[in-house]
Amino acid sequence: MNLIYLIGAGRSGTTILSLLLGNSESVTSLGELHQLPEYMGLEGKCSCGQLLSSCPYWNSVYSSLHNQFCSNSYKEQARELESHRYVYKYFFEKNRALTNSEYCSANKALLSHLSNNNQFTIDSAKYIGRGLALNSIFQKNIQFVYLVRDPRGVVNSFGKSVQTSRSWLSATAYYFIVNFTTLLVCKTLLRNKYIKIRYEDLISSPERVLSEIADSLDLDLDQVKVKLAKGEGLTTGHVIGGNRLVQDNIVHFKSSESWWEKMPRWKQWSIWVLTLPLNIINRYKL
Ligand SMILES: [Zn+2]
Questions:
Q1: CA torsion 154→86→3→9, rounded to 10°?
Q2: Alpha carbon of 38 to ligand 1 centroid (Å)
Q3: Rounded to the nearest whole angstrom, what is the distance from the C-alpha of residue 45 to the centroid of ligand 1?
Q4: What integer pLDDT is reported at residue 49 of this predicted model?
């Protein structure tokens, strides 16, 4: 079993990246698995439009693991391990997840239930805490893709009235904290286990970025590249969570960044200055 965990701030393109990777036959995208307890409690539907109890992909997982994921002890342990505010604890105790037995056994059971030996499975939860918890559970069998996007694109996306919206200052602070912490975690606890991708490169040259990911994670993405070259639609499969993109069965890969046309110059400048060290590291120019 090989797990790929997508990490990064919200609105940075993890849904589109997970969709692209999931269109390879050797990869299964499962969506944002930190939301699994709610979906197991039938509070949300799979991207196919069915509750997990009746979805053809998830129903066997639902019947065998529903009790584990819906237990209070699982939810308590998940809160402790996945919350942003407890991420600092991993620097003092890298494998702290291992002492949370319900969390470990439920996630192990889930992934062994869903993955074939030679397959890759993707969790696009993004949360740093969940990534680090899974890292201690799966050790050599987990790799990370860190997706970073221009802060002005992220702030612009949070300004739209879909999902949770945030004011530009709150979105800028969120962006800085999450990306700074992710970078720190990647350079220390996840050293040699991650590849960093810029959202803008993925959008402008998907074939090249997919080749980089394929080389780094040792997986075959040729099928996805062929689909893109032919302009074929991408299938969404059975994913949980994610943005409205996955509500369609077939998605055509096209995306453009237009924040720079709509956003006032003063705001672009302020966001860029407030997130400056990251912009130098990630090569985002004013
Ligand atoms: Zn489904």
A1: 0
A2: 15
A3: 8
A4: 93
